[in-house]
């Protein structure tokens, strides 16, 4: 009998064992892929505030980013945000969020440069009118136009009129 047949007959009983050993070795490298975490949604946020107001807003954004792992807000403090936002919108690359001056809300809404927020508010299970009750009546309707909500107050100011009683009285007025 040729030696090659003897080698084949001698190894034949070990073939299933060898096959099993190879399968075990191959399978040991085949772990299920670790589930990759979903990447965070990236939102760009341009804000009109600079200086200490920007630092306060940055701290708010940082706290939000640290509070969850779904959304990453990328904060940019900028001057002349209304002009830059108009140019970015016309160019088709506006930020996702913007802090704008209340005086410019109507102008941006009329140009379809702002998205109404009503559907987003309803997605939270609340009607916009109910949501706005969270704010002082003086600020609740500031960002609403034609029955739609385009802006929500983020920072408010105290408005006051100061006068000099003596000068008013000298002018014949009774303050």
Number of strands: 5
Globular, elongated, flat, extended or rod-shaped: what is the shape? elongated
The rounded Rg comes to 33 Å
Helix coverage percent: 40-55%
Low-pLDDT parts are: 17-26
Mean pLDDT: 82
Largest sheet: 3 strands, parallel
Helical/strand content category: alpha/beta
Summarize the helix and strand pattern as letters: HHEHEHEHHHHEEH
Distance, first to last CA? 127 Å
Strand content: 5-15%
Number of helices: 9
Across the major sheet, the strand order is: 2-1-3
Note the quaternary state here. Answer: single chain
Secondary-structure topology with pairs:
Elements: H1 3-11, H2 15-28, E1 41-47, H3 51-67, E2 71-77, H4 81-90, E3 97-99, H5 105-110, H6 118-123, H7 128-132, H8 137-140, E4 144-145, E5 148-149, H9 165-170
General description of the model:
This protein has 175 residues and is of the alpha/beta class. The protein has helices at 3-11, 15-28, 51-67, 81-90, 105-110, 118-123, 128-132, 137-140, 165-170; strands spanning 41-47, 71-77, 97-99, 144-145, 148-149. The strands form two sheets. The chain has a three-stranded parallel β-sheet with strand order 2-1-3. A two-stranded antiparallel ribbon has the order 4-5. It is built from nine helices and five strands. Helices cover 44% and strands 12% of the residues. Among the domains are: 38-100, no CATH class; 116-156, no CATH class. The longest helix is centred in the middle third of the chain and has 17 residues, at 51-67. The model is unreliable at 17-26 (pLDDT under 50).
């Amino acid at each position: 009998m040729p030696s090659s047949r003897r080698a084949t007959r001698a190894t034949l009983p070990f073939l299933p064992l060898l096959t099993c050993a190879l399968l075990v070795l191959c399978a040991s490298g085949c772990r299920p892929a670790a589930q990759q975490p979903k990447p965070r949604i990236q939102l760009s946020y341009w804000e009109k505030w600079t200086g200490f107001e920007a630092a306060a807003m940055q701290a708010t954004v940082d706290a939000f980013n640290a509070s969850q792992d779904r959304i990453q807000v990328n904060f940019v403090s900028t001057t002349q945000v209304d002009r830059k936002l108009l140019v970015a919108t016309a160019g088709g690359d506006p930020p996702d969020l913007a802090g704008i001056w209340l005086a410019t809300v109507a102008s941006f809404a009329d140009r379809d440069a702002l998205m109404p927020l009503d559907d987003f508010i309803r997605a939270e299970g609340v009607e916009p009118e109910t949501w706005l009750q969270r704010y002082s009546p003086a600020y609740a309707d500031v960002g609403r136009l034609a029955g739609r909500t385009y802006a929500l107050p983020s920072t408010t100011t105290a408005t006051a009129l100061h006068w000099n009683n003596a000068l008013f009285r000298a002018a014949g007025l009774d303050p």
